[in-house]
């Protein structure tokens, strides 16, 4: 009995020593790592050249109300819509994209898309990037579903500058130039789709993977000084979420699943390798994506400066994500969006907003994005 | 020993036992063993190889699936309270290879020597130690742990590990060889510096590799501690750990590990 007490006392004592030593090191490092969050009020509005909102996987809006992320995004975009671009990063219509008109699901699919188009204030530009669910949930109807979505967005936009890019089920890239910003839109599901990706009506400028890669290489090298290049596609180049082989059963076992939507699959790796090779020598400032229903800011590595995952547009679809060694910021089970302000002259400021907002406010993270 | 013997005869699957019950059983077994300690104190194989000579560490921080990562590791551990004045002090260095941001494979080389051995009249010489280790993250999760600790970035990870250790000439004519398996579990939280409390229960087998001594079978062990990942640099981690081998006279080990991972 005495031996037992001795042993337990030794364990408790050593636990205290370990905890105390840990707290000391933590206090030192926390003091060194303090940073100031830039609020909306602190940024002079007249110094902002272009504002980019990034929201993904917003295709499951609540049918009874406007969700907090879309509502807040609209409010912020309405301040200066003429210099605002809102990018919807795919999976705009859950679960199966836009069905043929007359199908039972059509009205609700339209409702899901309409909620997002309505969130774009008059005067702002809206860009929808296709996701795997928009391609008929990766099914054989995918190519036609994505074309129907393009038509429906045009119809709902009623003449405003709101478009699905790339168009007509093509892979892209399609570049949008606004001031210093070049936004290169890609349809990454085109790379991963197992069914028909072109037909007699396709007029894609780059019909093969090699041609798309070559064109991406050209597009990420815009002429002019001080250009800020963002590449937008649905599938991330890196993620600590479910599709990255984390959360639940992790990589070693999930690898055998062979799902093309997952980072660990060979098809997905081929796509990422092609894109990274296209970025070599002229890394874009950021590659932005959705797909995983989380908010992540990651260090991009050799071929891209930052990877932003902003796929938390639907409050009902938020998921787990793991903080990677490359992660600057990571949150899980929160909805939200990202805002990028490109300042006149120099400077690109990223802010992450997440909901439900804690007492400290919805602004969760800020970072000046600088090429490394 | 009694507790382990009881577990053998009770017809309940091990998986059905709660972790706390397992822990209690292991602690109890160790305490009874301690009470029976008599005679001179050798360095047991479990203490001489990296699994017992060096402190436990938290599971590796996950990273991008597109990269493989090389890392360096320095460790120091002291095993004390070994039923006598002698302590065992070990230093080691290692290299680690993290495969596609997940599983990690490491090589370790180091040296262990006795402390306070003059008064006991025993041989104060030391010995080298070498080890191979694989650690695999198996299951990660977030929401429950995140709500418990109140940090939305908190995740928990259950992993598994296997290691082989070798220490030549631990005592005259005796080499030590061990094989160990473990089920490490860690909780990672906070954004800038990742704070990672961990626990590393496991078992180690003395696989006899010298003719002078018979194999002494299996021992359970329990390590725990706290890791601080990304400490000032994205690739720098510090772990402070303690470990108990549930075998008589093996005492308690305390130690520190510093590791650095090269990011592309």
What does this structure look like?
The complex is a heterodimer of chains A (372) and B (264). By secondary structure, chain A is an alpha/beta fold. Chain A is 28% helix and 21% strand. In chain A, α6 (209-219) packs parallel to α8. The longest helix of chain A is centred in the first third of the chain and has 31 residues, at 2-32. The N and C termini of chain A lie far apart (61 Å). Chain B folds into two domains: 1-37; 45-261, Beta Barrel (Lipocalin). In chain B, 15% of the residues lie in helices and 48% in strands. Chain B has helices at residues 2-9, 19-35, 45-48, 50-53, 143-149, and strands at residues 69-80, 87-98, 104-115, 127-141, 155-171, 174-182, 185-188, 194-206, 217-229, 236-245, 252-261. In chain B, strands 1, 2, 3, 4, 5, 6, 7, 8, 9, 10 and 11 form an eleven-stranded antiparallel sheet that branches. β8 (248-249) of chain A pairs antiparallel with β4 (127-141) of chain B.
Question: Layout of helices and strands, plus pairs?
Answer:
The complex is a heterodimer of chains A (372) and B (264).
Chain A: H1 2-32, E1 48-55, H2 68-77, E2 84-88, H3 106-118, E3 125-128, H4 142-157, E4 162-164, E5 174-178, E6 181-185, H5 189-192, H6 209-219, E7 228-232, E8 248-249, H7 251-254, H8 266-279, E9 286-289, E10 295-299, E11 306-310, E12 327-331, E13 335-343, E14 348-355, E15 363-368
Parallel strand pairs in A: 1-2, 2-3, 3-4, 6-7, 7-9, 9-11
Antiparallel strand pairs in A: 1-13, 5-6, 10-11, 10-12, 13-14, 14-15
Helix pairs in contact in A: 3-4, 6-8
Chain B: H1 2-9, H2 19-35, H3 45-48, H4 50-53, E1 69-80, E2 87-98, E3 104-115, E4 127-141, H5 143-149, E5 155-171, E6 174-182, E7 185-188, E8 194-206, E9 217-229, E10 236-245, E11 252-261
Antiparallel strand pairs in B: 1-2, 1-11, 2-3, 3-4, 4-5, 5-6, 5-7, 6-8, 7-8, 8-9, 9-10, 10-11
